[in-house]
Amino acid sequence: MSPLEVVVRALVTLLGFLVLPLLVGQTEHKVMAHMQGRLGPMYAGGFHGWAQLVADGVKFVQKEDVTPAAADRWVFRAAPAVALIPYLVAICVLPLGPGVVGASVDAGALFVVAVAGIGVLGTLMAGWASANKYSLLGAMRSAAQLLSYELPLVLSVASVALAAGTLSLPGIVQQWNGWWLLWQLPGAAVFLVAALAELQRPPFDMPVADSEVVFGALTEYTGLRFAFFLLAEYAGIVVMSIFFTVLFLGGWRGPFVGQLDQLGVVWTLLKGFLVAVVIIWFRVSWPRLREDQLQRLAWVWLVPAGIAQVALTGVVAVMMQ
To answer: What residue segments make up the domains of the chain, in order of their start?
Structure first.
């Protein structure tokens, strides 16, 4: 790979990282506005509230950047970047089409799971450095949530990798076929629920339960630092949506891709967008769980379901040899 190609791939990946989370954020505004009858997001800029995201950006820029007097200042200020950067690294290895990937990694599925799990360190840093007991409690909840749901997430990914016979994400797409939609469906459900919990999205947003811990680890954050945490959340939705698409929906596979490979990118982004809408729909439609219900769901239901899916995949893989 030439240096010029490396630079181009890096710039395109960075551009996608900056644009796609903002599109997801704008979509969330509109979906929630329609589903809950919210009028506010429909006014900014006129037609259909197109400038709502711009208004939010201007609002965050104008807010004062406050650091608590008792905070660990360096850790407090570094936390938003630590929460955001892992998703940029994960996006680099997600294939959007045949040969359209920032960096080709042989064990891409394992790489994405490992890197995405690092993001919780930013939340832990924010809670610890804020010198606020509610922030620390929210950070501890985030850590417990990640530890509980990392295992079912890994089991669902392992099931797909076992079925495809590879940990390479392009290789998984190439081995994918339509009947995976049936026999990998339990694993897909486990993955989606675990991804919601890892992203701390409703109904798994106990770390930021305002009635209990104010806003958890983010309580003391204002302005752009708070906006970076929100951007990390939307970047996580992008990563998990495209990852789900690659694992369970065939990635760039779709009609007319053979005649025009560029359509593969469109199919991947379209499928990923639909998964992101489902994630937003969960926020609108489901009430928040309790902490004990969260742990019970993970260990009593999702982990056994993930193990059963891996066992089923193993049996089918042996029978097909």
So the answer is: 66-320
